[in-house]
Design goal:
single chain, alpha/beta, four-stranded mixed β-sheet, disordered N terminus, General transcription factor 3C polypeptide 5, RNA polymerase III type 2 promoter sequence-specific DNA binding, TF_IIIC_su-5_HTH
């Protein structure tokens, strides 16, 4: 590794050095000597200290072995709070020359210059980012004096209890400084110019965000569980928006299909609609508000209800209630979050670190031959936007596509679950916001049954995840009470599943489409 490179135009197929009149020279290359260049952002006096700031030769070699990784440079290698500079990797075609100039003092002869090609460079690391993201472990006193905290917060050797009981000023370094280490031009937008006579809206706590953004013209009607009446017809603007967009024969056909769907079943989830209709998502956003209203709270939250239909007054609407189901994980259930067969769609841990670079990989082109005979009719085109059935239907032998799902009770195709739902048919007395027309705690019982089925399904497909628990050796005396068993149950309860960070919250996503 060298910190300087000299580029010159030479022939890679050169032979032995031959004197050439003028300033040109012909040198032989060493094809086996491949070098990596690091353009160090500083004046190098001590090479060993310079290498220490980039992790030494092992650190550079490790970075070079990973093409998507950037080279880290720490000006204070011994400081764990030093924020590194990151060098970008660039391909290059350069040569490293060793030039010697020999001359005799006092003689008038010309100096003799010898040049030798040490090797050729194919990769260069350049530090182009800013190095001012630093946060030192110091404390500023009231009089302006600064005190170092490194000896008080760094554990350099095993210490006694007194070390941890000492009073230390609060020091909380930021977990991340910036996702970008290069300056970016921020283009400020000019003030919005309104027409003469425009009256600005009053600013309240409900519309502080996105004042300069136009409201999305979908004209959906939102209804909460506490509202006394439900809308009987859509907004006129919603109808006009769909008529303006409905220009093709296929749009009219899809509209008729959706009308028949709501006549057959008055309440639908958006996933269920997308699994039964082949319609572009943008067009679906305009068609749904003209057919149904959206429930925000209660047992039918996040569902679309036909205009004029009030599920709170109809016990038969029990089968259309929503069930918020989330796959449980933990040692109690037999597998950890990393081993869960249903991966998260999003996660806060899946972000690009400043020391790594993601490059788009070109997709390979594919060619498909058309062998259709001219006399035979062409096959209908496959649906482009239609979802698969398992996106909204739960069965005993399938896994949910996401870790969090919003199922309707009528789409749970398991006999034991259906019996649990219909056990109070004809005896419904009151519809409450939590359980709807079902008996109290029915959603919790349904989740337990579904979780047990998923666990058995995973056990049959991936038995390696479920290891038998080793039996404890028998003690000399049995415990006098069930304290030990109680402790084990408490430990298992602590491992109860929490909502996944990567869950796809369908309700929030759908509301944002119309706000």
């Amino acid at each position: 590794m060298h910190e300087e490179t000299t580029e010159t135009g030479m022939s890679e197929h050169a032979g032995p050095s031959v004197p050439v009149p003028g300033s040109a020279a012909v040198l032989s290359l060493k094809p086996d000597c491949k070098l990596v260049c690091v353009e160090y952002p500083g004046y190098v006096v001590n090479v060993e200290k310079m290498l220490e700031t980039v992790g030494g030769e092992p650190g550079v070699s490790k970075t070079y072995s990973e093409p998507s990784r950037r080279l880290e440079l720490n000006y204070r290698p011994q400081d764990p709070y030093c924020h590194p500079l990151c060098g970008n990797r660039f391909p290059c075609t350069s040569l490293l020359l060793r030039v010697r100039k020999r001359s005799r003092k006092g003689s008038g002869a010309e100096a003799q210059v010898d040049m030798e090609v040490v090797g050729h460079i194919g990769t260069t690391y350049k530090f182009q980012g800013m190095g001012d993201f630093q946060y030192l472990a110091v404390h500023t006193e009231a009089d302006g004096a600064q005190t170092s905290l490194y000896d008080k917060i760094l554990l350099r050797q095993p210490e006694k209890k007194e070390f941890f009981d000492k009073e230390v000023p609060l020091y909380i370094p930021p977990p991340i400084f910036s996702r970008l280490d290069n300056p970016v031009d921020y283009y400020y937008r000019p003030d919005i110019q309104h027409r003469e006579g425009y009256v600005s809206q009053t600013v309240s706590s409900e519309n502080l965000i996105g004042l300069s953004r136009a409201r999305r013209p979908h004209n959906a009607i939102f209804v909460t569980f506490d509202e006394k009446e439900v809308p009987s017809k859509p907004l006129e603007a919603a109808v006009q928006n769909w008529k303006r967009l409905c220009m093709h024969e296929n749009d009219s056909r899809v509209e008729q299909q959706m009308r028949e769907m709501f006549e057959r079943r008055p309440i639908w989830s958006r996933n269920a609609v997308k699994a039964n209709l082949d319609i572009h998502p943008d067009k679906l956003k305009l068609l749904l508000p003209s057919m149904a209203y959206y429930m925000l709270t209660g047992p039918w939250r996040s569902l679309w209800v036909r205009f004029g239909y009030d599920p709170r007054k109809t016990p038969e609407a029990k089968i259309y209630q929503v069930l918020d189901f989330r796959i449980r994980c933990g040692m109690k259930h037999g597998y950890t979050p990393n081993d869960m067969p249903v991966k998260a769609k999003r996660s806060t841990y899946n972000y690009t670190l400043p020391i790594s670079v993601n490059k788009a990989v070109p997709q390979a082109a594919s060619v498909q031959e058309i062998t259709q005979d001219r006399g035979q009719p062409m096959k209908p085109a496959p649906p482009r936007y239609k979802l698969k059935e398992p996106t909204y239907i739960f069965s005993e032998d399938t896994l949910p596509p996401y870790r969090q799902m919003f199922y309707q009770l009528c789409d749970l195709e398991v006999e034991s679950i259906k019996k649990l739902i219909h056990r109070n048919d004809g005896k419904e007395e009151e519809c409450n916001e939590r359980d709807g027309w079902c008996l109290p705690r029915t959603p919790d019982e349904l989740r337990d049954i579904m979780s047990s089925m998923i666990k058995q399904n995973i056990r049959s497909k991936r038995p390696a995840l479920f290891h038998p628990k080793p039996k404890r050796k028998a003690a000399a005396q049995e415990p006098e009470s069930g304290e030990e068993e109680q402790d084990e149950e408490e430990d298992e309860d602590e491992e109860e599943y929490q909502p996944s960070e990567g869950s796809d919250n369908e309700m929030e996503t759908e509301i944002l489409d119309y706000m």
